[in-house]
Amino acid sequence: MADPMRIRAQAAGEKATVRVLMSHEMETGQRKDAAGKTVPAWFIQEVTAALNGKPVFSAEWGPAVSKNPFLQFAVKGAKAGDKIAITWKDNKGDSRTDEATVS
Predict the structure, then answer these.
(1) pTM for this one?
(2) CATH number of 6-101
């Protein structure tokens, strides 16, 4: 399983800015290793976010996203103390969910 995501959520007025740094190798399936064999594709396909259990964000990604991707988005109606949960799923069936509190 991958390392925990680094999530920072800061409230400002009627919205919160959420910043997420995900730990994932993100292979495209086009690179070759030292022996000349193609490295199999391995990338995050789906990213979702929930505020206090209610879905607020969803994205579908492909192999063109960089290693250890960074994501930033804003959520209306979030306030200090709310919980934001981020989940990703990759093309090999692995997934990870981490949670942070809006400050």
Answers:
(1) 0.88
(2) 2.60.40.10
